[in-house]
């Protein structure tokens, strides 16, 4: 089967003071999925020193991902990345109410998340991981 993954993104930047508008729209762009597995989880993320491992159970090769920070308090961002040695290397920063959609590198085998230092509380990170 082909075109199992469909992504629609409309990014608009309005700058009224400068009378500028930037827009980039990807409408119904489709991608193939070789694997068959996926996960959808909401995980409570704390301020662990090197983050908390995200569940990638049953995912052979990580492919597309969508992350959503369910937090509402300003400053309660979540970083997502990898811990190749002993320290989290963040590649995404997701503010409260924000989301990120991306295709993950095939070289990544684990994902880790951590909250902002000084965050008001642990936060829920909702995520979908789709096998490549």
What would your notes on this structure say?
- It is a single chain.
- The protein is mostly beta strands.
- It has one domain: Jelly Rolls (Sandwich), CATH 2.60.120.
- The chain is 0% helix and 53% strand.
- The strands form three sheets. The chain has a four-stranded antiparallel beta sheet with strand order 3-10-5-8, with no helix packed on it. The protein has a four-stranded antiparallel beta sheet with strand order 4-9-6-7, with no helix packed on it. The protein has a two-stranded antiparallel sheet with strand order 1-2.
- The radius of gyration is 16 Å and the shape is flat.
Write the layout of secondary structure elements.
Elements: E1 5-15, E2 20-31, E3 38-45, E4 52-53, E5 62-69, E6 78-82, E7 89-94, E8 99-103, E9 112-115, E10 123-131
Antiparallel strand pairs: 1-2, 3-10, 4-9, 5-8, 5-10, 6-7, 6-9
């Amino acid at each position: 089967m082909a075109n199992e993954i469909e992504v629609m993104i409309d990014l608009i930047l309005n700058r009224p003071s400068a009378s500028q508008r930037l827009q980039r729209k990807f409408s119904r762009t489709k991608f193939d999925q070789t694997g068959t597995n996926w996960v959808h989880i909401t995980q409570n993320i704390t301020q662990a020193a090197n983050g908390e491992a995200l569940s990638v159970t049953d995912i052979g090769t990580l492919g597309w991902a969508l992350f959503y920070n369910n937090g509402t308090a300003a400053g309660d961002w979540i970083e997502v990345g990898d811990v190749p040695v002993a320290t989290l290397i963040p590649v995404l920063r997701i503010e409260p109410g924000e989301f990120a959609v991306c295709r993950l590198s095939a070289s990544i085998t684990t994902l880790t998340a951590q909250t902002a230092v000084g965050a008001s509380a642990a936060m829920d990170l909702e995520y979908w991981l789709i096998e490549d």
